[in-house]
């Protein structure tokens, strides 16, 4: 038997402040050089497990450990945090927070500085590692000057300098756009091959991690490990569905078409997938029997942007070039593109947070230029990504009433409008709760309610589902669908391709401050040119369709979404 | 957005000095300038400090905000001193020379104006040096320097980290304030001071909450990479002392000695031209 570098035996953990344990009966080992994915919904104990492996438990978070956890053959509670950090290198989810140095070079050197490595040796080591992850040209750059993907490379380098045996990645894809996420998975794979370290990736976006080979997948649910097997086997069971972890789309498509997925078909990657001729035929038949789509009626133009130009004067950089687009009443649309492509800036210009250099914005025929931020907010609401950045009151009711009170609306009118907004958002029974007692998703609803109460016809949401697992993601998105059905136009800024495919009827693609596409999501995600230019990622459904000889790939993708909306989601709600 | 404290990377003789040197020089210089009211010497120090400012390739527009802020403060300070103690100059110099043919408690005296002149000179002798220090010292090198002069490295690093996160917090403040304005928080000058203070709290609460959760993550990130393990640590940005470093420190040391010498000769901190 190969040597286990990390080994859990009948392990359990309970936080000091909690009523019941967070982890139960954990039994598994990680061999040297192995690559393991740990998946599971939010609250399943993944983060706690990560903290156990990197030593933050028990050294920073208090609680009771039962059973045994050995790292390199030694019981973890007998080691200290620093000894563990030399064996297990952790790359945190938030690469912004992990970046503690003033420059790239210093950040990479951080662990070496703490280990009192002499300066000249340190400089050599930093250069060596920087080359491995390909950031050698940015050594003098400050954190604000590098992109999200580069930040993550720096984080990886900062851990590699320690010559660790295990690389632990906590949700590495959470803050990355699709193309960068794909590169991150490739980087992790390359680093493992070069260093021979074991790799543990904790992530709920299964399909994206499976882009490169993993040896095993551990599935967690409610504090227990419910599966520990190769990806091919796991994908052939219904365990993922039951735990609320999303299967790769191509696997779901096969299931919809009635094809039985077995380990022999190698479902872990669309390129490896082997299908018999009759199974391909089955998929084609499923596609062919699709009904004709009635073209969706388009409402009147609500918001119109014409030839918008914007740049920060001091830095003299143009962020938006000649942006023109229309948003129709009743739409649910997505704005996509890489970080820094201008999508958030464009929304900020619409809401009046920034003033454009040129161009015109009209809302229902009125010129927006003369409207203040406050006045615009009564027509177009903006919901920030992080709900904590919007919440300033203690109680739910006061938070939602805040905007109206500032507008000196009479208290009786406030009462009725707040009740309405809270009821729509499903928060009425929590109206007297302190906001601190709410979950992330509920806080998000509070911020949406506090915008809704101002009576906008259009809401712009920045990354509405960032960092949410499949269940919470579905909850939030279904809620937005409901709002949309009530006649509120919704614009979502996102780099989640699933979200855009499933929920948007139209998508506008930004790249380097320009709009490069304005089409249905199914068309966009099957158009290689747009995908490449905007750092998006082809949907795996496209590969599946190609494999089975379906030429109209975008119709196939569209049918998949329609089918899922009609059948699958309907089943869930029953 | 205005930058409050910002290291400006340029090539200059001042930039080439190590952070520790600049810190020691700043302290010596401040003691030298604060320790005397000798007009002649303060004028010389003010001239040298402006010369050094030029040598550091820092432009007035780089520091316009800080400069403006200090000037407003200085003017206010002068007015208040005059209002509360218009005879201060007389008390110090022992004579009363009324000017412009006016007399009385609030009438301008040569002594009082001379005192104010000295006060202003003091500012002009120190302010450029402080700004120079802020603009030419790389924060991480500064942390390394603090550590070298005997301050514990956790404290030193905390200072550097605070500087590191200032732009982030500024950015976040900007975003939050815009979002609150959308909800009707009025920040314009039209509103009364009380209302504006209330409005500021609507921005500060979320700002503090988001920063707090940030702190937890950052401190975890640092511990996981061995921060705090050893009594000592090395610094990637540390630089060895060169000949110019020693010369600069000796130069500033001499300035302090001159101050002490002048205090001895003048029989106190003040140079008195009125007797």
What do you see in this structure?
The complex is a heterodimer of chains A (574) and B (275). Chain A has 574 residues and is α/β, with parallel strands linked by helices. Chain A has 24 helices and 20 strands. Chain A has three domains: 236 residues, Rossmann fold (3-Layer(aba) Sandwich); 77 residues, no CATH class; 239 residues, Rossmann fold (3-Layer(aba) Sandwich). A six-stranded mixed β-sheet of chain A has the order 6-7-8-3-9-10, with helices on both faces. In chain A, strands 16-17-18-13-19-20 form a six-stranded mixed β-sheet, sandwiched between helices. Chain A has a four-stranded antiparallel β-sheet with strand order 2-1-4-5, with helices on one face. In chain A, a hairpin with a 2-residue loop joins β4 and β5. The longest helix of chain A is centred in the last third of the chain and has 21 residues. Chain A starts with a strand and ends with a helix. Chain B has two domains: 154 residues, no CATH class; 69 residues, no CATH class. By secondary structure, chain B is an all-alpha fold. The interface between A and B is large, with 65 and 51 residues.
Key phrases:
heterodimer, A: 574 residues, Rossmann fold, 3 domains, six-stranded mixed sheet, 24 helices, 22% strand, disordered C terminus, B: 275 residues, mainly alpha, 2 domains, flat
Q: Which helices and strands, and how do they pair?
A:
The complex is a heterodimer of chains A (574) and B (275).
Chain A: E1 4-15, E2 23-31, E3 35-39, H1 46-54, H2 56-59, E4 63-71, E5 74-75, H3 81-87, E6 88-91, H4 95-98, H5 104-114, H6 119-132, H7 148-160, E7 166-170, H8 178-195, E8 198-202, H9 206-209, E9 216-221, E10 224-229, H10 231-235, H11 239-243, H12 249-256, H13 277-288, E11 301-312, E12 317-328, E13 332-336, H14 343-351, E14 358-363, E15 366-367, H15 373-377, E16 380-383, H16 396-406, H17 411-424, H18 440-452, E17 458-462, H19 470-485, E18 489-493, H20 497-503, E19 506-511, E20 514-519, H21 521-524, H22 528-533, H23 540-547, H24 553-573
Parallel strand pairs in A: 3-8, 3-9, 6-7, 7-8, 13-18, 13-19, 16-17, 17-18
Antiparallel strand pairs in A: 1-2, 1-4, 4-5, 9-10, 11-12, 11-14, 14-15, 19-20
Helix pairs in contact in A: 5-6, 5-7, 6-7, 7-8, 16-17, 16-18, 17-18, 23-24
Chain B: H1 13-16, H2 19-34, H3 39-55, H4 64-84, H5 88-93, H6 110-136, H7 139-148, H8 153-182, H9 193-224, H10 243-266
